[in-house]
Amino acid sequence: MSEIATNRKAPRDYHILEKYEAGVELRGTEVKSIRLGKLNISDAFARVDRGQVWLYGCDIQTYEKASHTTHEPRRTRRLLLHKNEIMKLLAQTQQKGLALPILRAYWKGHHIKIEIGVGKGKTHGDQRQDLKEKAENREAARTVANFNQKNKR
């Protein structure tokens, strides 16, 4: 599996509770653009509507070498999931404060897959706490590395 794009804002803004893998319904020029790396999922999210899951805010730039038919860059795209997964997502999104951010896009064989997270929004206090823990872990790793360097001599 090779990574196409990662949403680095999602883990900062959400506590990810669960992850789902979904296929994406794409047109030919969209696949060619993704092969060239012209995919942006930083503002992308999913929503359950009329018994199907839809991808919003995903930006796939137009394919420059396309003939007269091109795709709209920010159109909504259908995500392909099993019916029981769709029902679980519907039940979870009806709870207060849960959203479906897109975490990453990757190749699985010849297919493009999207990883959807079920996330609960973080407050500013949560985000500050995460930064504090990250800084503490970095400092601890630095101390251990310095200790190991001294013991090698």
Molecular structure report:
The chain has 153 residues and is α+β, with helices and mostly antiparallel strands. It contains 4 helices and 10 strands, in the order βαβαβββββαβββα. The strands form 2 sheets. Strands 1, 2, 4, 5, 7, 8, 9 and 10 form an 8-stranded antiparallel sheet that branches. The chain has a two-stranded antiparallel ribbon with strand order 3-6. The radius of gyration is 19 Å and the shape is globular. The protein starts with a strand and ends with a helix.
Provide a quick synopsis of the model.
With 153 residues, the chain is of the alpha+beta class.
Main sheet specs:
8 strands, antiparallel
**Which assembly state applies to the chains in this document?**
single chain
The structural class is alpha+beta
Q: Specify the helix fraction band.
A: 25-40%
What is Rg?
19 Å
H-E order: EHEHEEEEEHEEEH
Helical segment count: 4
Give the tally of β-strands.
10
Q: Which word captures the global form?
A: globular
The span between the termini is 41 Å
Mean pLDDT rating: 88
Percent range for β-strand residues: 35-45%
Q: Which spans of ≥5 residues are poorly predicted at pLDDT below 50? A: none
